[in-house]
């Protein structure tokens, strides 16, 4: 990896001299953000764009480095940011504790600048590799939205979160209408382009940061809508449907419209009772064991109804 200025490093140290030394060492290769105490460190660590790496002093007045890393690791926003301790505390016990708290490396002062620079380069290279692997594993290459693997992973997590917090969770299945005919008429390459545009449009139509749209397969997309009850899910799906329609991608042989349209089915699980209890209830008041499969099956059945009813619509 060639270091570049789009990579951000947050440097935290209460002593100006230490900040200066690290700044001199790294400023040519990276964009640096400096914090002179623990509170500032937490504030800057949560500001977007997030830092790619944090160099953290241990001994600081008020909030020390150990408290800072604990809080970073507890926050879903910052827990993946690698932290390197840079400290004068050099005993084996100190180092062991730093690594136990989740630091990826432990550098003791006084340090050798060229060695520290190389160690930081190596960690940054690792960060970029990790991101690349993440993209490959969880992004659909054609549409550049989440893939099926990511969808399944998020749905399991959101289902258990909804059960824990006794909230509603909705899913949606979205399927392009008469897409086979589109491919037949315009060719597969245009079909691919249309899928990209549909995916972008669906994604842009979602409002909440926790919502997810994924490519579920072929020309099918799926939505995860946390803390969303059935009527709200219907509204979100309708908004998504309209967004695709408004793209006005010509589809002259579709019998629904002269443009590409989608149909959607939604399904909702509503967890009632006190948080942590096991009572599981559907929208219709039936108590049943809701698994990922049954929720998706229901959304699929509702999608089928939307298709049967004439397409370009949401069911229920
Ligand atoms: P319906 O309204 O009932 O959903 O009709 P449909 O033609 O969309 O349904 P069908 O399931 O018969 O066809 C889906 C089509 O989607 C067939 C397939 O060629 C196309 N498709 C699936 N994945 C891709 C893809 O990655 N690229 C392109 N260009 N087409 C795809
Ligand atoms: Mg200090
Ligand atoms: Mg289909
Ligand atoms: Mg279809």
From TrEMBL:
Residues 167-316 form the GGDEF domain. It catalyses: 2 GTP = 3',3'-c-di-GMP + 2 diphosphate. Its EC number is 2.7.7.65. One of its GO terms (biological process) is phosphorelay signal transduction system. Keywords: Nucleotidyltransferase, Phosphoprotein, Transferase. One of its GO terms (cellular component) is plasma membrane. Signal peptide: none annotated. One of its GO terms (molecular function) is diguanylate cyclase activity. This is diguanylate cyclase. The gene is pleD.
